[in-house]
Specification:
The protein is of the alpha+beta class. The protein is 30% helix and 31% strand. It has a single domain, classed as GTP Cyclohydrolase I, domain 2. It has a four-stranded antiparallel β-sheet.
């Protein structure tokens, strides 16, 4: 198993349960882990998963529609990555750093793992 990780990919999105979150938009941080199997053994770029392409898919999903729940956003990103790349598994965590709760928090998050 070979895992490639992209941590803290920051994108703006118009997701959230509150109308103000959807109107103003906010920061979301994506942590993506993809199991590329044995793709790294050859040391050939042609056999690897292009990080830029992974980032483009995350951006496309996030920009493509508005999600009420972080869970739904994470699930949609994970499913799209699995459908576009020859992956053994994928893990996607979406963090919301600017969340407003009744007590201070660093961030909230939702995670999805697909085989």
């Amino acid at each position: 198993m070979t895992v490639v990780e992209i941590q803290g990919l920051e994108l703006r999105g118009r997701h959230g349960a509150l109308q103000e979150e959807r109107e103003a938009g906010q920061r979301f941080l994506f942590d993506v882990r993809v199991d590329v199997g044995e793709a790294g053994r050859s040391d050939r770029l042609a056999d690897a998963v292009d990080y830029r392409a992974v980032v483009a898919v995350v951006r496309e999903v996030s920009d493509g529609r508005r999600f009420t729940l972080l869970e739904a956003l994470a699930q949609a990103v994970a499913e799209e990555l699995m459908s576009r790349f020859p992956l053994q598994a994928v893990s996607v965590r979406v963090r919301k750093p600017d969340v407003r709760l009744e007590a201070p928090v660093e961030w909230t998050a939702a995670s999805v793992e697909l085989p």
